[in-house]
Design a protein that fits this description.
With 76 residues, this protein is of the alpha+beta class. It has one domain: Alpha-Beta Plaits, CATH 3.30.70. The chain is built from 2 helices and 4 strands. Strands 2-3-1-4 form a 4-stranded antiparallel beta sheet. Strand 2 and strand 3 form a beta hairpin. The longest helix has 12 residues. The protein is globular. The two termini are 13 Å apart.
Length: 76
Amino acid sequence: MKKVVKIKGMTCEHCQKRVETALNKLPGIKADANHKKDQAILVVEGAWSEDAVRSAVAEAGYEVISIADKKGFLGL
């Protein structure tokens, strides 16, 4: 399953890397952050915790605004 995490505070590629590194340390999560879109796309396998994602981003120095399911082509 894929999730879109909207993140406040990323302003550069260094920020983007910090967020990716923090999220990729979580079990079952592969993250791809984009500072220009203020978001990270998560590929989640198995059990995961929204609280763990929020904590990892906060510990990296940023704030999670929202977490939502990633929609495919045409919103399906």
